[in-house]
Specification:
The chain is built from 19 helices and 25 strands. It is α/β, with parallel strands linked by helices. The protein has an eight-stranded antiparallel sheet with strand order 3-2-4-1-10-9-11-15, covered by helices on one side. The structure holds 6-O-phosphono-alpha-D-glucopyranose. The site of 6-O-phosphono-alpha-D-glucopyranose has 16 residues, from helix 9.
């Protein structure tokens, strides 16, 4: 959600900014723009729509500069339009600002500025920042930004240029993500390392309430009162390579990432799962047996796909460890006065490590005395840094908005976590240790097996997805999987898809079933096969067209379905990943046939950094 890139150095800033904005497209955006200082003159371009429009306008009327800032906007305040796109400028054009986040008191600030005669041109909250900095400016941009920020409430990742100080970018961060990249005689600012991987491995993740004074030769950090702060250099992880963020032979990142799943799952377990006896160790997380004994409950907080991984985590941990677990949507957790404190472990699952609601839930739990564990894919992300403990999923960069390999690796980590808790509890039955170990070890091959059926899955979409709405049904682990299946389909095909526990169909949704309504039914848990069969008969009797996703051992159910995709045989707990992989491919090929923008679906953002 919103992407920021800034460059200062000796190279062509506009080229670096445009390339950076392209790398950041995956975060989601609806308009784009940049500002640069050419021969002492602050110039800017911005437009609603895709980056290609901005590139065309730059091609027609180039800007030559060694300093500049660029922004992909995902609209919050004010519709997507040329005028609302960033950068925003002070009325005299001296100050230029790009911003990710929400300025909560912008109406108040706007009224005060208007009373002083400032004229606003956009509907955005960001424009107040440009005018406010201009009002404070008396020859030193750093002081002006610091003074302006003392009046601002809300969330921000900001980059500011000033025409009369062409040798510096001032950046600032509170709640929204921002990193600095270090080069030789050049430096960078960006929302995330995807935009920097081509230029440097040396970065610094800015903390909240930090202002950075960035020149070509130096980076200095300050708190909001301009007290100097220490700069700690970090590194972009090895798997964040330029190739990893490129499409390669694939037509879409989503397809590439679906295919990367077997290796990503192996990477997630590597160095953590010791041997076939199920011993597990994590670098960033360890509990003593005493600490585990004191654990009264676990809450998993997350959003979107990560939440659905959490729903499966609840199912898995409760099944094998018999300890109460809640999976909570982070935006609900924050505002429900949650029962957390000493004796609770709160696990935040987040691919990006930046989702605002997940981050704030984790901070809330920590403030109330709970232990907090982050399961994230991005080292150094805000959630990673805010938690007491951390486990990395090691999925590598995930670019498509619809999450795929992040989900698989989160589920893999949850197998390992359940095993780890089992080793602490000393009472986990041997069958559970075996089942979880097998699941963790079988998952990559189980997913590969399904990838081998890609053609058949693609064909299945021809038959069944001609409707504007459909259901995904299952029980237990199959319900957990169907939640993710329905989310995938709605995200990228825009077909209204709903996941329902099969047994609950009769209590409402069955009224919606008519001749030809497509239903994806799951049957991967042998003890529930007969129930699955009854539910399939029930919906078929009302005219539904059933696409079954089932284990080979459920072949007798397949006879009742219109189409079946069989996922092979594996441990019960391992079936969720191949089943979800089938639904990822179904969604992908359906969206493709409908001509959707698979990697960048409308209105969605990869990383939701505002509430
Ligand atoms: C957005 C993305 C989803 C993602 C969710 C949570 O909605 O479009 O794909 O699952 O955020 O993101 P996180 O980075 O916290 O896992």
């Amino acid at each position: 959600m919103c992407g920021i890139i800034g460059y200062i150095g000796y190279r062509e800033a506009v080229k670096i900014i445009l390339d950076g904005l392209e790398c950041l497209e995956y975060r989601g955006y609806d308009s784009t723009g940049l500002a640069a200082i050419e021969n002492g003159k602050l110039l800017y371009r911005k437009n609603v729509g895709r980056l290609s429009v901005l590139k065309d306008s730059i091609d027609k009327d180039p800007i030559t500069a060694n300093i500049g800032i660029g922004h992909n906007r995902w609209a919050t305040h004010g519709k997507p339009s040329d005028i609302n796109a960033h950068p925003h400028l002070s009325s005299d054009g001296l100050i230029s600002v790009i911003h990710n986040g929400i300025i909560e008191n912008y109406l108040e600030l706007k009224a005060a500025l208007e009373a002083k005669g400032v004229e606003f041109v956009s509907e955005t909250d960001t424009e107040v920042v440009a005018h406010l900095i201009r009002e404070k400016y008396k020859g030193d941009l750093l002081s002006a930004v610091s003074e302006a920020l003392s009046e601002i409430r809300g969330a921000y990742a900001l980059c500011v240029l000033c025409e009369s100080e062409p040798g510096r970018i001032i950046a600032a961060k509170l709640a929204s993500p921002l990193i600095i990249g270090f080069g030789d005689a050049e430096n960078f600012v960006a929302s995330d390392s995807t935009a920097l991987a081509a230029h440097t491995r040396r970065i610094c993740n800015l903390n909240d309430r930090v202002i950075a004074d960035v020149t070509a030769e130096s980076v200095h950090l300050y708190d909001l009162d301009l007290k100097p702060l220490e700069l700690v250099e970090e590194h972009i992880p090895d798997e964040w390579t330029q190739e990893a963020v490129a499409l390669g032979e694939y037509s879409h990142f989503m397809l590439k990432e679906i295919h990367e799943q077997p290796q990503a799952i192996r990477n997630a377990a590597m160095g953590k799962l010791g041997s076939k006896d199920g011993s597990v160790a994590f670098d960033g997380f360890s509990f003593t047996k005493e600490e585990y004994k004191k654990l009264k409950r676990i809450d998993i907080v997350a959003c979107g796909t990560a939440y659905f991984a959490g729903v499966f985590g609840k199912y898995l941990i409760e099944k094998h460890l018999r300890i109460p677990v809640e999976a909570c949507i982070a935006s609900e957790f924050r505002y429900k006065n949650p029962i957390v404190g000493e004796g609770s472990l709160v696990i935040a699952i987040s691919q990006s490590g930046e989702t605002m609601d997940t981050l704030e839930s984790l901070k809330l739990a920590k403030a109330r005395g709970a232990k907090t564990l982050a399961i994230t894919n991005v080292l150094g992300s805000q959630i990673d840094r805010a938690a007491d403990y951390r486990i990395y999923t090691m999925a590598g960069p995930e670019i498509a908005v619809a999450s795929t390999k992040a989900y698989s690796t989160q589920v893999e980590i949850l197998y390992l976590l359940a095993l780890y808790f089992g080793s602490l509890s000393e009472s986990m039955p041997a069958e559970s240790v075996e089942a979880l170990t097998n699941a963790a070890m079988q998952a990559p091959d189980a997913v590969s097996y399904v990838l081998g059926q890609e053609k058949a899955i693609e064909q299945a979409t021809e038959e069944i997805f001609k409707s504007s709405r459909m259901f995904f049904i299952g029980r237990g682990a199959d319900y957990c999987a169907s939640l993710e299946g329905a989310l995938k389909l709605k995200e990228i095909s825009y077909i209204h898809a709903e996941a329902y526990p099969s047994g609950e169909l009769k209590h409402g949704p069955i009224a919606l079933i008519e001749e030809g309504t497509p239903i994806v039914a799951l049957a991967t848990q042998p003890e529930l096969y007969d129930k699955a069969l009854s539910n399939i008969k029930e919906v078929k009797a009302r005219g539904a067209k059933v696409l079954l996703i089932a284990r080979d051992s459920a072949a007798y159910i397949a006879r009742e379905a219109d189409i079946s995709i069989m996922i092979g045989e594996m441990e019960d707990d391992a079936a969720i990943l191949p089943a979800v992989c089938v639904m990822q491919l179904l969604s992908y090929y359906t969206a493709l046939k409908l001509g959707r923008d698979v990697d960048k679906p409308r209105n969605l953002a990869k990383s939701v950094t505002v509430e």
